[in-house]
């Protein structure tokens, strides 16, 4: 998970699901919890990580770039 100034970002993979995201949303309310689907791999931080504040860095990899483009993070990611 990545905690920014405005939300908590979590990855959805083979080892997590939408029910887990819902629990996190309840626990951390009113902070928004944003889910990013990971088509392969297990860890969100293998694809994207926080640089500073709300600035995110995306791995220089076709899969990572495509994942970030399809996520709510697309407008803030730099790669």
What secondary-structure arrangement, pairings included, does this model have?
Layout: E1 2-3, E2 8-12, H1 18-28, E3 33-37, E4 48-52, E5 55-58, H2 62-69, E6 77-78
Structure report:
The protein is an alpha/beta fold. Helices cover 24% and strands 29% of the residues. Strands 1-2-3 form a three-stranded mixed β-sheet, covered by helices on one side. It has a three-stranded mixed β-sheet with strand order 4-5-6. The longest helix has 11 residues, at 18-28. The protein starts with a strand and ends with a strand.
Largest sheet: 3 strands, mixed
Based on CA atoms alone, the radius of gyration comes out at 12 Å
Number of helices: 2
- Please write the string of helix (H) and strand (E) elements: EEHEEEHE
Strand order of the largest sheet: 1-2-3
Number of strands: 6
SS-derived structural category: alpha/beta
Proportion in β-strands: 25-35%
Distance between the termini: 19 Å
Into which percent range does the helicity of residues fall?
10-25%
* Shape estimate: globular
- Overall residue-averaged pLDDT value: 82
Sequence stretches where pLDDT stays below 50 over 5 or more residues: none
